[in-house]
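User: Once you have settled down, look closely at the record that follows, taking as long as you need, and be ready to discuss the fold:
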Amino acid sequence: SSDWSIVAGRTYTVTVWARANQASTKSFNRGYAFFKQGGQQYLFNWPDGYPTDAKNAGKWVRGICTFTAAANESGQVYLYGLTDGEAGLIIDYDGLQVEEKPYATSFIDGTRSPETLTIPTAGVFNPQEGTIECWVYVNDLIKRQTGEANASMLLCIQRSGGGDGIFLRHRGTSAVWEYRTHADDGTFTNLSVPDSYTPNGWHLFSVRWSPSGIDMFIDGVSRGFALNPKLPSGFHNVAYLGCYWLSSYYHINSLIDDLRISNRARTDEEIAAAYASGQPLPVDEWTTYLLRFSGALNFGRGGYYISPQYDLSTVGSYVKHRVYWQEDADQGECLVYAKLDNQSDWTQLTNGGSLPIVEGQDLT
């Protein structure tokens, strides 16, 4: 790369995505996030393995290096391949990013705005019904009593006409979690749940809404509900995660993980099962947005797109086929499902694999 400068005492994170077209058992050169001949040198780490590892061949993996500069200096980023080389091997690099912060975020072409995480609402949030599920690390800062109601906002969506639409927060004037939905005229329905249900540590918060009622679940158990709630007719273009929509105030000052948004009110059983499984929240046909936060602030990957139906009745007897899709850098969790119209369940596909059809099957 061209030269870039570091300042003594400041912390930097350098990231890059890499993909190898084939596996190799030869030594992979990790590459330098910062290199100055005779000066400071910082190597990339590859937490998910090298791009040339057998498990990663053909996939994008991320190299990460976080360091605190020991002195003011100018240096370069150096990216290599194998130490000894191998015939036919090609390594692609993409999304090189340098950030002055102690953690990695998703790639952005330009300068990232201050730490405000927003989610687009179009095609993601359904004002008539929906469910938001999110793991949150509860600490004393979240539960602090500031004298202001809007102390720690987990998620906030402004309604299309202005003002609050839906939010989930810890109240700064009492020891409760509050889940509130607003109608277009500003009237609202409010749920208050004691924070005694959330001792410090990780907890799964789930809120849902529909014309018949709103509910708040903590760790898979319903802790509050209200019938016939006030609901907005539409939402502003973005939702705010971890802060308030008005000037991005009232940050939670803690960790958020594994966020799932659905376009319908999920059942008690689904919410309880999601918590009890101990696994990342799954993607299904009602999932409109998903954030994994897998070792970095990765953008929403997942969400759910249903393709047009394709008429296979003219094919007759099935012989063979393959299904492919393009996977780009930072899109490692691309999940594709398919089913015939006479099948009740979706089948997950593999890239280069086949549809849920058996050879010789009559498709008429």
